[in-house]
Amino acid sequence: MQNLTGLSEVAPRYDGILFDIYGVIHNGEACFSGAIDSLQGLTEAGIPYAFLSNMPLRAHRVRDALIRLGLPEALTARAMTSGEAVFRTLGGAEFGKHYYFQGPERTREIVPEGYQPVAQISEADFVLVTGIGDNETPDDYTSLLQTALARNLPMICGNPDLRVGRGDKTVACAGLLVEAYLRMGGDARWMGKPHKAVFKMAEEMLGGHLLMVGDSLRTDIAGASAAGLDTVFIKSGIHAGDGDQAIKDSPVTPTFSLPRLAW
Fold first, then answer.
1. Which structural domain range is residue 154 located in?
2. Considering its fold, how many domains does the chain have in total?
3. Are residues 185 and 96 in the same domain?
4. pTM over 0.85
5. Do residues 90 and 71 share a domain?
6. Which of 146, 165, 190 lies at the terminal end of a domain, its last residue?
7. Same domain for 89 and 153?
8. pLDDT 10s per residue in the chain (263 long)?
């Protein structure tokens, strides 16, 4: 692994750059100045980039979300999200038409037309999870997990992150619940990083030899490495304070590392 001081040291080697969002571009409350500088630097250098996020929303929502958090409109780019992966998968696969939904109402847009929500898991063909409460754990969903398992329902995860940073704290994500279902022996279906399919979807946006920049060893770095991409690990994100130890404990070693995203 090579330690960098800025992305400009390696960016010209690649045909395009993929960026995770939470912990890399912003902290859930505001965009980082170093991230803005980096995107500006790539723009001036003529190096294309795109965002690859486990956000459980349609891809076109990324632009508006980033602008709200302070990213200049001119620096927004194409995006692929786990929510978009759900939308595409459900649009082309047959899971049955009745689904039980767990998550913020605004994320329900990732379900294509033709599917019907149900109020009881006993009436569902599958469960879609896009989020849980910030401070909740799988123990808060024991009934949901046990009922879904008893019926052998597929549980689709619209955000495979376990936790993400928001300001100076971390909050729970959908992956925490679906991982618990998997450990119970349930049929978990992951839509997003670290799973290879979403990286292939993202690669189609840019093409060529790509570099992935992310802060999660589990999703960004391991997933990109498995998909054949070089990686930059941002130590100031979800692993802040223990980035070096996390790398030692990880089965995958990043290609490069940065203390935080900088140009």
1. 85-190
2. 2
3. yes
4. yes
5. no
6. 190
7. yes
8. 999 999 999 999 999 999 999 999 999 899 999 999 999 999 999 999 999 999 999 999 999 999 999 999 999 999 999 999 999 999 887 789 999 999 999 999 999 999 999 999 999 999 999 999 999 999 999 999 999 999 999 999 999 988 887 777 788 999 999 999 999 999 999 999 998 889 998 999 999 999 999 999 989 999 999 999 999 999 997 787 776 788 888 888 999 999 999 99
Pair 40, 263: CB distance under 8 Å: yes
Statement to judge: residues 220 and 174 lie in one domain: no
Q: Is 210 within a domain? A: yes
263 occurs within a structural domain: no
C-alpha 101: how far from chain center: 19
Same domain, 116 and 243: no
